[in-house]
Amino acid sequence: MSADVFTIGIVQDHATPDREANLARAEALVRQAADRGAQIICLKEMCATSYFCTRQDADRFGLAEPVPGPTTDRMQALARELAVVLVVPLFERQAPGVYRNSAAVIDADGTLMGVYRKMHIPDDPLFNEKYYFTPGDGPVAGGAPLTQEHGGFRVWKTRYATIGVLICWDQWYPEAARITSLMGAEVLFYPTAIGWHPAEKAEWGAAQVDAWRTAQRAHAIANGVYVASPNRIGHEDEPGTDGLTFFGQSFIADPFGRYLQQADEAEAVLVARCDPALIETVRRNWPFLRDRRVDAYGPILNRYLG
């Protein structure tokens, strides 16, 4: 674990069907974050595309790209130029018929360190992700971990800090946060595309945002780590429906769950300093990891206990 204070940044912005415009905007906002001192910068979920999962349409698989590929090539050059670590979420074509919701991790020298592939895949009205995405792969038979290039929960020892990346729906699973923290992550990044069905906003909108933030702040507290969650913003149409309105509300929280930075529904670049010494202090005084009963947790491997 790094002994040095480091600075992270997250980018909250919208997206359109224009890939080049999305990437140009992302690059400009990364530059803003770097100018403000950010050393590790995370973009929103599927930063190069609109949120295309609003309908099952086989033609939309054409939006995917390989890793390495054009987006990671571009972002590697940017990381190298600015000497920053980048987390670049994108729609990945891993192989014929195998598509992933992924995040590439690029070190500050431009090296592509690896790829995290979203482990938990939702399926809700206008969030037809199970149609598009193969979930990330867990351990191979026998329990041996896969290499970081092949999925599962991963951490990366970047130039500035050890980071973990989880994606959107992963936010609701304490197991994902706990495993990634136990692997040494100092920060959990959660690139996100979450929003409202417009007809439900009046009744459920405030509660949904509060639940989303509370769940992730709880991961910060329970694991003694920083949490940073960049969400997208803006309304995206889908013919025949009311579309989706992405609610933003991105934030960075410390290991006490305190907000260091937070956004509303406008474009934003959030930057915060992270001190590994605070992780140590919190874990000494709230020794949740020490007091885990690992001998008693076998039942968690069952989907249901009747």
Question: What do you see in this structure?
Answer:
The chain has one domain: Nitrilase/N-carbamoyl-D-aminoacid amidohydrolase (4-Layer Sandwich), CATH 3.60.110. α2 (70-82) links the parallel β2 (40-42) and β3. Strands 5-4-3-2-1-15 form a six-stranded mixed β-sheet. The chain has a six-stranded mixed β-sheet with strand order 6-7-8-10-13-14, covered by helices on one side. It has a three-stranded antiparallel β-sheet with strand order 9-12-11, with helices on one face. It has helices at 19-35, 70-82, 129-132, 174-182, 201-223, 276-285; strands at residues 6-12, 40-42, 85-95, 98-106, 112-117, 155-157, 162-165, 187-189, 195-196, 226-229, 233-236, 244-247, 251-253, 259-262, 268-274. It contains six helices and 15 strands. Helix content is 25%, strand content 24%. α1 (19-35) runs parallel beside α2 and α4 runs parallel beside α5. By secondary structure, it is α/β, with parallel strands linked by helices. The protein is globular, with a radius of gyration of 18 Å. The N and C termini lie far apart (41 Å).
